[in-house]
Design a protein that fits this description.
4 strands, alpha+beta, two-stranded antiparallel ribbon, globular, two-stranded antiparallel sheet, 2 helices
């Protein structure tokens, strides 16, 4: 069944998590990245920051004014 964001028959979670390589300190994005090294994930034809998608999958919507940051300073990390 298509999910709420796209006509893709596979869920967002099933598309997203296989592209994450977990290490003891970071969850490294294995998919496409922008020129600055930040992971990019396509939803409904829009490229979104993979770290922001990970946050929303695990915690829910990002509150207005909240900055989702990479505490490890690795732009490819989605933890």
């Amino acid at each position: 069944m298509p999910n709420q964001y796209t006509k893709h028959p596979i869920s967002i979670e099933d598309r997203f998590w296989p592209k994450v390589g977990k290490t003891p300190s970071c969850w490294l994005w294995q998919g496409g990245k922008n020129r600055l090294g930040y992971g990019q994930f396509c939803l409904a034809g829009r490229d979104l920051g993979a770290h922001r998608v990970a946050y929303e999958l695990l915690r829910g919507p990002i509150a207005e004014g909240l900055e989702v940051d990479h505490l490890c300073r690795n732009p490819a990390c989605v933890n």
